[in-house]
Amino acid sequence: MKKFKRKLAGIDIFSPDIKNCTDNGSMIAITGYHRLKKDKRMIGY
Description:
The protein is mostly helical.
């Protein structure tokens, strides 16, 4: 861990609260659903 911290010295890191971290898979799935609903030709792209 010390080696890792030395490598990151001077680099700002942003990490959101755990309550703001959600499953990206669900967001990707709902986006795909809405795009497919809008244009059914996407099935065989």
